[in-house]
């Protein structure tokens, strides 16, 4: 990755009309509907943006959408790149760097995750307080990382406390149960074994998923304030583990999505 490449990606988007967005949003698996609410949308398919990771066939629908939401200029990623699709961590986080160069000042991230904390139920939302990186790599482990920020990026407070407080308040006002906890990212794409769920719980994780952490590390590298929420789609009880039902996971994500959209829209309003 070079600055020249990033600049070419940004130039392409500016020419399409992406005009200084203030807020970037990453929409997780099964959570793409917020994009439909954007006014005066301009779309850029990932496949058409210079130097964006080359998408797999399955992933042709991934796009960046620019427009207005709650009177703010936003850029939304509908679909993200996952490590388990065969990209490397620099590729996975390339769009975050592009959005930052477009001008975003805040980043909101969503994902679908399994509940490790068994007090948390599927269909609930969890605000990330902290995370554990179990993906076996870092998006900052490349030679010229120093050109883009501090190699030894501080991670003592990875999720912006001010925006977290705002989300907690919004959830209270909207009567949405908002759990808080630690998200652990795994590589996937296979789901976890019972023994792995036990291990993740012992580590202190409340939810597990296959994304978000690389993007949050890069946001911190760029000193870009970030918040993230997990839509809890399944309960990872090692003592009663059922075979995974992906259709159910997607259905629960879709049913829970309106609450997530409400939280994000209200936060955009307040910022
Ligand atoms: N494990 C990992 N990723 C997930 C899960 C899970 O149980 N549920 C949704 N994404």
From TrEMBL:
Q: Which GO terms describe its biological process?
A: nucleoside metabolic process
Record-linked CDD domains? PNP-EcPNPII_like
Pathway field of the UniProt record reads: Purine metabolism; purine nucleoside salvage
> Which of UniProt's keywords are assigned here?
Glycosyltransferase, Transferase
Q: Which domain of life is it from?
A: Bacteria
Q: Where is the Nucleoside phosphorylase domain?
A: 23-269
Q: Which Pfam families match?
A: PNP_UDP_1 (PF01048)
One molecular function GO term is: purine-nucleoside phosphorylase activity
Q: What does this protein do?
A: The purine nucleoside phosphorylases catalyze the phosphorolytic breakdown of the N-glycosidic bond in the beta-(deoxy)ribonucleoside molecules, with the formation of the corresponding free purine bases and pentose-1-phosphate.
- Write the protein's name: Purine nucleoside phosphorylase
């Amino acid at each position: 990755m070079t600055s020249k490449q990033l600049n070419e990606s940004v130039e392409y988007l500016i020419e399409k009309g992406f005009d200084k967005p203030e807020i970037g949003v990453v929409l997780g698996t099964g959570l793409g509907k917020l994009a439909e609410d954007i006014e005066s949308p301009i779309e850029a398919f990932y496949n058409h943006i210079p130097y964006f990771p080359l998408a797999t066939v399955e992933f042709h629908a991934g796009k960046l959408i620019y427009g207005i939401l709650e009177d703010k200029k936003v850029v939304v990623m509908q679909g993200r790149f996952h490590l388990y699709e065969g990209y490397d961590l620099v590729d996975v986080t390339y769009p975050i760097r592009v959005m930052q160069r477009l001008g975003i000042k805040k980043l909101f991230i969503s994902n679908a995750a399994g509940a490790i904390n068994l007090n948390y139920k599927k269909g609930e939302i969890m605000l990330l307080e902290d995370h554990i990186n179990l993906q076996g790599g870092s998006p900052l482990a490349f030679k010229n990382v120093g050109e883009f920020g501090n190699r030894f990026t501080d991670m003592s407070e990875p999720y912006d406390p001010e925006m977290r407080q705002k989300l907690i308040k919004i959830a209270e006002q909207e009567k949405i149960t908002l759990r808080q906890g630690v998200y652990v990212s795994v590589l996937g794409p296979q789901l976890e074994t019972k023994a792995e769920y036990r291990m993740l719980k012992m580590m202190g994780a409340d939810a597990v998923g296959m994304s978000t952490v690389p993007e949050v590390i890069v946001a911190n590298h760029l000193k870009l304030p970030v918040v993230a929420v997990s839509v809890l789609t399944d309960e990872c009880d090692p003592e009663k583990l059922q075979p995974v039902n992906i259709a159910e996971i997607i259905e629960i994500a879709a049913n829970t999505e309106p609450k997530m959209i409400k939280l994000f829209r209200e936060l955009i309003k307040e910022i």
